[in-house]
Design goal:
single chain, 322 residues, Rossmann fold, two-stranded antiparallel sheet, 14 helices, elongated
Length: 322
């Protein structure tokens, strides 16, 4: 994680330098055009020193002197704002510039990580994880139904029709976001396109401005165990627990332990309380998920997640043979 933090820290430093340069440029521009504003700023910059001098001056009515000086400051400030407007500038044109006004480009609000810090951390992780390259290749623009068989499978519709129905339903869910979080399980045998379709949905959410954390099941449970035993920082926890969209690839492929069900349940509950979205791909059937993770988690999957069952021949081989 240290590399991630270093990258994000440099982002804030770059923001500060860029914004300070623009702040200075604006002042130089305005001072050249309206010299009186520079005179006012010079007076205002000495206001703190003047207030201290007045506090030390015991002659006369100190309270009255303070009020007179405050009135002078208010009058100068009002004159400055009027001059800005008269010369075609917005009244805030000379205010300090921040990329994030909430934390003023410090990354902290009340000694806690700002939302902008967490978003940057998640997005940087997304880029470094390789997910960015995956989603460039696997997105809705490159998804085709032609790789699916049009022959019915028993009493089910054909894999072709099934993929079309799933895609249409998926589009409706995304169109309804953020009114409702999107929790989906793409289930089915290897090679039925579930990971590809999951990645299509993830890319769409990313394009909508959502923060995204992409992880495999093995790495996920390792991270959750570290969180459980307080081996991770609060910022690390937010990568998994606080991102807008958590993508878990190949659930069921992890090495199970006694605490695996508890870790999964805690993850589901925490993200549910926050109204966040989770996409899961798995080779497991719903019965297997109940068996692997227990009744409580299986019930939550059935109740809170839209389950898309994908089936048919291995489309990777079908694609190669075409």
């Amino acid at each position: 994680m240290e590399d991630l933090y270093s990258v994000v820290a440099r982002m804030y430093e770059n923001d500060k330098q860029k914004n300070q340069a623009e702040y200075m440029r604006r002042h130089s521009e305005v001072y050249e055009k309206v010299p009186r504003i520079k005179e006012i700023d010079d007076i205002l910059s000495q206001s703190g020193i003047e207030m201290v001098r007045l506090a030390l001056d015991k002659a006369g009515d100190i309270k009255e002197k303070h009020e007179q000086y405050r009135q002078k400051i208010r009058a100068l400030t009002a004159e400055k704002l009027d001059l800005l407007e008269e010369n075609g500038y917005d009244k805030t044109y000379l205010d300090p510039i921040y990329t994030c006004k909430e934390c003023m480009d410090t990354g902290l609000v009340n000694n806690k990580k700002c939302r902008c810090f967490m978003r940057r951390l998640v997005m940087q992780n997304y880029k470094q994880s390789g997910a960015e390259q995956i989603l460039k290749k696997e997105n809705i623009n490159k998804f085709t139904y032609d790789v699916y068989s049009k022959k019915a499978v028993g009493n089910k519709v054909s894999p072709y029709e099934n993929a079309k129905e799933i895609t249409a339903h998926l589009k409706r869910l995304i169109d309804n976001y953020p009114k409702k979080p999107i929790n989906i399980i793409f289930a089915g045998p290897t090679g039925t396109g579930k990971t590809f379709l999951c990645n299509c949905a993830a890319k769409k959410m990313l394009d909508m401005g959502c923060s995204l954390y992409y992880t495999g099941a093995f790495a996920l449970f390792s991270d959750l165990a570290d969180i459980h035993f307080d081996k991770e920082t609060e910022a690390d926890k937010e990568l998994i627990l606080g991102c807008d969209v958590l993508v878990i690839d190949d659930l069921g492929a992890e090495i199970p332990t006694k605490i695996t069900p508890n870790l999964m349940l805690d993850l589901i509950e925490q993200r549910s309380r926050r109204g966040l979205s989770t996409f899961i791909t798995t080779n497991c059937s719903i019965d297997m998920l109940f068996k692997n993770y227990g009744e409580r988690i299986g019930s939550r999957f059935v109740k809170d997640y839209k389950i898309f069952n994908m089936y048919g021949e291995d489309i990777r081989f079908l694609t190669i043979n075409k």
